[in-house]
Amino acid sequence: MGLLLTLSGCAGSIGTTARSLLTHVREDQDPNKRYQAYNKLGRLNAYDNPEQVAESVAELSKRLMEGKEPPVSRAMICRSLGKLKHPDARDALLKAMEDP
User: Fold this and answer.
1) Do 77 and 69 meet the contact criterion of CB atoms below 8 Å apart?
2) Using an 8 Å Cβ cutoff, are 31 and 70 in contact?
């Protein structure tokens, strides 16, 4: 059964809702799981309302501006913010352009 779950992509699932994904972003020590959460937060179907989008944009922008994530995660944050097309992400994305 474990092999079947691994092959089907179900192993290590981090959820699909904005709430569960933000929990991983804020609390998970595993950078790979945070990366997955950053990726999924760029999908509009993860959100139930505009307030959740705004909360995610604020959290992603904060993490991007802190610069503490690995480069690949910072790139994913930029991608997700771009896909959300929220004006509050502008400053963080402009600052990210200076990121080596």
Assistant:
1) yes
2) yes
How confident is the model over 76-85, as a mean pLDDT?
97
d(CA 36, CA 15): 10
CA max distance for the chain: 47
d(C-alpha 53, C-alpha 30), whole Å = 23
Q: pLDDT, tens digit, for every residue of 30-78?
A: 999 999 999 999 999 999 999 999 999 999 999 999 999 999 999 999 9
Give CB contacts under 8 A, 24+ apart, made by 41-46: 41/80, 41/84, 42/76, 42/79, 42/80, 42/81, 42/82, 42/83, 42/84, 43/83, 44/83, 44/84, 46/16, 46/17, 46/18, 46/21
pLDDT at 5: 38
Using CA atoms, how far apart are residues 75 and 73, in angstroms rounded to an integer? 5
Angle between helix 50-66 and helix 18-27 axes, rounded to 10 deg = 20
